[in-house]
Amino acid sequence: MDQLSEVERVETWFRQRGLPLVVRRRVRGVDLLPRATPSIVFFLLIEPILQILAYVVAKVTELWPGEGDESTGFALVVLGLTVGALVIPPLGGWLVSRLMRRVGERGEWPIAIAVLVLGVVVLIVEQSTGLHEQAFWVSATVTVAAVLLLLLLTYLGAGSILAWAAKVAVKQVNAVGTLASKALPLLMIVILLSFIAAEVWQLVDPRYMDRGRLWGSVGFLILLGGLFLRSVVSDEMRELEEEQSDSTAELLRRRLRGTPLAPYVRDDYDGGVKPLSRPERFNIALVFFLAQAVQIVFFALLVFAFFVVFGTIAVTDELMEAWLMHPPDPEGGRLFGVSIPVPNELIQVSIFLAAFSALYFAGAAATDPVYRDKFFDPLVADIRVSLAAREAYLDRWGAQRA
Question: pTM of the predicted model, to two decimals?
């Protein structure tokens, strides 16, 4: 295998780990449009779906006269469009990415140009069907600006980071059993007492805290959790860099076992690699942060589902009325505009406790020995591998990267 193909294989490995800013600077702008094509396909697919969803919501009384947003048909259409927006765009981008890898370099540019032409066709169709209320030149300007932004994000490696985050999310789906069996029972001992406290139900009572204020409270808790995670990541990164400065060839080989970088660790490696640059430190810290954030989001969804199911089984309307000091809303609950057969008060409490639980989990995962061993230390070990790989990469191809 020639030297160039070795470098490309290693750099592809870095991108697959969400670390595009570690690779050589001069290759970041090569074939920018073909590399951005999957993300452009994602945009071209999700944009009309969201436009149709907005149109259905705005015209609900005309499409379902007499029933409005209480219609079963409306709920099914909204649910279908929502699922479509979550599934179709990423699937389309992934399929195009696979196709471009299969056709090779010669076929990438024709596919990229065809996607741009398809974007123009989609824009014309949306304009002619009335999905876009703005003038054509306004819609065209917004579309062009979006494509240029996607090209910039591709140059910065955002696509690699998001693709890596999606892979982590899939892994977390497979790890829901671990979250449920290791994290959820310990937290429930603490948080379950809050669920049966009348004051919590009164705090988030929809009569006094509408959904907007509730999301504002959740956003504040998310902000606190984000600040805490940033502090934890910063401290861990500092310790990992200090630890990495004392690396030896034997240590690098042990950490890089099973990676494409393992064969390139020299026996006379002296650990004299340059410290992380600001973009590299930001990239690695962002990957570290996102890995924890994905864990926390999945845990919050698990807690929300638990309380909705538990509350539906255990909390009667009479008990809810005793806690709230008024009967629950007879119209039932709504979540993101869709009616669901669960009391609105129960949805409010479940959302609030899920956000609070996520904040607790963010702190416990980094400090509590039980949580740290299962959820935090594996992420730290993964970052150690990334730092070791960077050392071997710079030691072998550092002169070419500049």
Answer: 0.69
